[in-house]
Design brief:
With 297 residues, this protein is an alpha/beta fold. The protein is 29% helix and 29% strand. A hairpin with a 5-residue loop joins strand 9 and strand 10.
Length: 297
């Protein structure tokens, strides 16, 4: 029997807890976290400076701030880069692969249709994006090993207009699915709208998933920032439409170029694609993230 690699998990939050529950291939020695102390399950939570006390094969990062953590560990010569891994998304997200559940998959497909019809009704500048776009282009459907529904959106309306529109979206989803959907607006410290998230609490029938709208923000003369991704501005200067099952879906100009940029060989499924596989990203720090404000409708 092959001996398991000995690892230290970096991150005592939800991602760390999920990773510990789901992984089978590693022997976990301890949990490292910059802020938390105590224990996570049976494992001690230690500070990054205590890493040197352990004989380990790898550090496995389970935080969305992986770039910041890698820089800290390598610049301070705590751990060499070749001994650092980033956990795949499906190991650390709240609900891994909710769409593998058939009842959840059906409700996700219905949800997508409801939202797109409302976006089209109000002529919002949305772009179906991420893994949702990938699935619609490659498979003409939501990918079953995906975890959420992705949009980008260019904001032209006032907050009051958006509140009204997205309140209607939440109400319509609740009416169509009999689930209690909540709409959350996330703002940066300077008051700029960062993203809009729509989700519901998991039930005995449906697995939890969320719907995210990442707001398009200026970054450089040729690039924009959407969430943590930095993308060529050309994709947002106009749009193309997909027509799937009689549904007109707005997406990027040169959307296949976008898919190639983000996913590389996008025509071949990659179930282990993770945060560290994305191309150019905006390195949002934990301190910056903590200052965000959430408004729930």
């Amino acid at each position: 029997m092959k001996e398991k690699s000995r690892v230290i998990v970096y991150g005592a939050g939800e991602g760390g807890r999920n990773f510990i529950e789901r992984q089978k291939e590693y022997e976990i020695l301890a949990i490292v976290d910059t802020f938390a102390t105590g224990k996570l399950g049976e494992f001690d939570i230690v500070s990054p400076l205590e890493i040197v006390k352990y004989e380990f094969d790898y550090i496995i990062i389970t935080s969305m701030f992986s770039d910041e953590i890698i820089s800290y560990l390598t610049i301070n010569k705590i751990v060499p880069r070749e001994k650092i891994k980033v956990a795949p998304k499906n190991y650390i997200l709240q609900e891994a692969n909710p769409f593998l559940d058939e009842t959840t998959y059906r409700i996700a497909t219905k949800t997508l249709n409801v939202i797109i019809n409302l976006m089209n009704k109000y002529e919002l500048e949305y772009f179906i994006s991420g893994g949702t776009l990938l699935g619609l282009v490659r498979e003409q459907a939501i990918i079953k090993h995906d975890n959420d529904i992705d949009f980008d959106i260019r904001i032209a309306d006032s907050s009051e207009d958006l509140f009204s529109i997205f309140k209607e979206v939440g109400n319509k989803l609740s009416e169509e699915t009999e689930l209690d959907w909540k709409v959350k607006f996330r703002y940066t410290e300077d008051g700029a709208l960062h993203s809009i998230t729509i989700d519901f609490d998991e039930t005995e029938t449906y697995k939890n998933f969320d719907i995210s709208f990442r707001v398009v923000q200026s970054f450089t003369d040729s690039k924009v920032r959407v969430g943590f991704l930095i993308v060529d501005k050309e994709h947002y200067e106009s749009c193309e439409y997909l027509n799937i099952n009689n549904l007109k879906i707005r997406t990027y100009n040169n959307y296949k170029g976008y898919l190639k940029y983000v996913y590389g060989n996008w025509e071949v499924p990659d179930k282990d694609f993770g945060f560290s596989d994305y191309p150019e990203v905006y390195k949002l720090s934990y301190e910056e993230y903590k200052k965000h404000k959430i408004v729930t409708l």
